[in-house]
Amino acid sequence: MNFKRLVPLGGTLLLAVLLAGHLSTAAGPSAGDDVIAGEGCTSILVGKLASTDGSVMTTHTCDCGTCDWTWRHVPAADHKPGSTRKVYHISQYQTWPPSEGLKWDLYKKDFTGLEIPEVARTFAYHHGMFGYMNEKQVSIGESTIGCQRKMQNPTPAAKLDLSMLTLLGIERAATAREAIQVMGSLAEKYGYGFHDDGEMLAVADANEAWIFEICPAGPLWTPASGKPGAVWAAQRVPDDHVSVCPNESRIGEIDLTNKDFFMASSNVVSLAVEMGYYDPKSGKPFSFKRAYSPVEGSAASTNGRIQRLWRFFDLVAPSQKFKPETPNMDLPFSVKPDKKISVGDVMAMTRDRSYGTPFDPVQGIRGGPFKNPNYYRATRVIDHGLAEYSTVTQSRAGLPDPIGGIVWIAFGSQDTSCYMPLYAGMTEIPKSFMVGDHWTFSRDSVRWAFDYTDFHVQVAYSEAIKDVQAAQAKYETELIQRIPEIDAQALALYKKKPAKAAEFLTGFSLNNATTVTNAWWKLGDDLLVKYNRLYLYNAEKRGFSRGQPATPDWWKKAVRAFDILMEPDKK
Amino acid sequence: MNKKTLLGLAAAAVLAATFLLAGQAPPKVGLPVLTTSAGQSTDVTTLNIVLDEAGVTYDYCDVPTPEMVADGVGLGGRESGPGFHVESTTDPSKYPAGTPFKAVVFAIGASLKGMGASGLTLDSEEARIKKVLDLCKQKRIFVMAVHIGGESKRGPAGSDNERMIDAVAPYADYLVVTKDSNKDGRFTKLAQSKKIPLAEIEYALGLVEIVKQVFQ
């Protein structure tokens, strides 16, 4: 293409969009924007009075794209006095070929050399990249927030990475507050960082949801200094509120006299003063996020790069008319939703693609003729197609802990996946959840079943996604409606003998996982047949004639406009 | 006693112990110095923070070419851009732009994420480092290599990190490594076979006094 034709390219493409009648009046992302690197997970929190059934909920979209997705169940254990707990370095990103073994066996090769005093009893829990749910209904979600560059501590002086910290927290804590204190105090004592830097954890139990944020104390920290090897703060989400962390620090001003809502390390202000991130003489109150993990800009000013925060608040509280132009650091910590939120609503939010907003990834011609939101990834939406898996945890008061706690897991991209429940009281998890990696296709791995379907959806997204949504309605929505019945059966058994309830919940969850996984393998097969070579095959009629997925008129106009652009110059 | 004094005393004690163990004082090189990475891990950030703490001024570039190094202080006026970062705390009144560097310090540590951000692969990073080292040899620029990532950031033979060590360490004039990085004695053996002075430190903090000795 010569330069003369390049010059009018933007104008002609704009014309194409205008012809299509899909131009948004609000400022949208420009085609030249880079895909954002280094942005990961989204974590949502719902207080017990903000949910329809009294659940406290957290989420984690484990957005990586190349990380390990395998899960494990760790049973409870009693420990003799004087015994110790080994601490390992765990990289969120490191994977191993299946021929070498599985991550949750191999990570033990990276012993830090540190053994800490063991507690008398460690609780049973389910974990993937992080500890997610223990037998006391303590649950965790995660989102990386980053920190000031000079705070990073990638040196071996920092013994604790985030994954290890969550495993220790969830195996030792019976409440969210305990988990925060366990993780915070261990990080202070033994140093935090190495593979990780600024991080947020959503920490909940059946009564409370907290945002816990932690940063390293810089690479020159040593245990001999006597100073904390981390700085952290935690703020409780009011019971009737919801909150979110989309890779941005959420904790601003802190009031440590209000112990029901704030906790922090002893150096929370002093470290900021020492490192020059806060001047007490400024007259301004100390703000955790502005000192340690500041984020400049808004959804609008970054063309949607950091729009998830605004989008979440707009989704849950549209009556408050949050503006995408508001700087993200000025948006509230939490908000009371316009209506109470169900677990299904939370799952839907993890699938959000910002459709219909100024940051709609399929507006204009961005998604192609079949409105595929994965073509144009400059806008960072909640469901970015990067997830190894997503979790929605429910901690429910009024039920015994093994029944009250559920972690719902959807493997792969949320839009084409299906949430499956694992109860807190389960004593094992499906074998297919424990194996697999990105670079080796395996029919033994649950994740590949979902990726298999996802792959076949991409061909004609706007059509195939309807088939997936029908399957989600059957295997996910209907199951959510059945959960009270499952709870009741488990409760009846629990009253007789708790072990029987655990056996029942384990059997139920394993069976459901197998059913759903098999359904998604078949769904992938069906989509392959149905949209084969971009025709429409009706497997029931088996007719000679076959249709094609409808190509919209605006797309045909856009093609014509592009043809005009590409016509040879007339001499 | 303020924080800096405490930190200084602690670092001096660590340094004294280090020298006692190694039986040698660090070489004296002087300024100006360029800091850079071999493998694009965040360890180079630690290195720069160490120099800041020591009060040693420096030019920094994550992916310098031999031409940039040859251009001396200011790196020929090049500015940061996508996948390319430069920074300078060098005092221009003492070392004006173009003053030849007396030393280049490499922070060894491979990060696929870091190399990806700079548009590099392991092969291209190795090739770039070799050219920079060739220039240093030709121009008699002192090469100091540090490995402060510890055992966890070493990996087995042939790993990304080991390749970065092989690319730099045998050609260095001075090696500083944390004890944790040298658990298997790899750096000790290499230093002995290549007759390179080696200092072992406990923590990155130990590097503060060393760089003071080398560059001030």
Topology:
The complex is a heterodimer of chains A (about 575) and B (about 220).
Chain A: H1 3-6, H2 9-20, E1 43-46, E2 56-63, E3 72-74, E4 77-78, E5 84-88, H3 103-106, E6 111-117, E7 121-122, E8 125-127, E9 131-134, E10 139-144, H4 162-172, H5 176-190, E11 199-204, E12 209-216, E13 230-237, E14 242-245, E15 262-264, H6 270-274, H7 288-292, H8 308-316, H9 343-350, E16 387-395, H10 401-404, E17 406-411, E18 420-423, H11 446-457, H12 461-496, H13 498-530, H14 553-566
Antiparallel strand pairs in A: 1-2, 1-14, 2-16, 3-8, 4-7, 5-6, 8-9, 10-11, 11-12, 12-13, 13-15, 16-17, 17-18
Helix pairs in contact in A: 2-14, 4-5, 11-13, 12-13
Chain B: H1 3-22, E1 33-38, H2 43-54, E2 59-61, H3 66-70, E3 86-88, E4 103-108, H4 112-117, H5 122-139, E5 142-147, H6 160-168, E6 174-178, H7 186-194, E7 198-201, H8 206-215
Parallel strand pairs in B: 1-2, 1-4, 4-5, 5-6, 6-7
Antiparallel strand pairs in B: 2-3
Helix pairs in contact in B: 1-8, 2-8, 5-6
Could you walk me through the main structural features you see in this protein, from its secondary elements to its overall organization?
- The complex is a heterodimer of chains A (571) and B (216).
- Chain A is α+β, with helices and mostly antiparallel strands.
- Chain A is built from 14 helices and 18 strands.
- Chain A has helices at 3-6, 9-20, 103-106, 162-172, 176-190, 270-274, 288-292, 308-316, 343-350, 401-404, 446-457, 461-496, 498-530, 553-566; strands at residues 43-46, 56-63, 72-74, 77-78, 84-88, 111-117, 121-122, 125-127, 131-134, 139-144, 199-204, 209-216, 230-237, 242-245, 262-264, 387-395, 406-411, 420-423.
- In chain A, helix 12 packs antiparallel against helix 13 (498-530).
- The longest helix of chain A is centred in the last third of the chain and has 36 residues, at 461-496.
- Mean pLDDT of chain A is 92; it is low at 1-38.
- Chain B has helices at 3-22, 43-54, 66-70, 112-117, 122-139, 160-168, 186-194, 206-215, and strands at residues 33-38, 59-61, 86-88, 103-108, 142-147, 174-178, 198-201.
- In chain B, strand 1, helix 2 and strand 2 form a beta-alpha-beta unit.
- Chain B is 41% helix and 15% strand.
- Chain B is of the alpha/beta class and 216 residues long.
- The chains are: A alpha+beta (571), B alpha/beta (216).
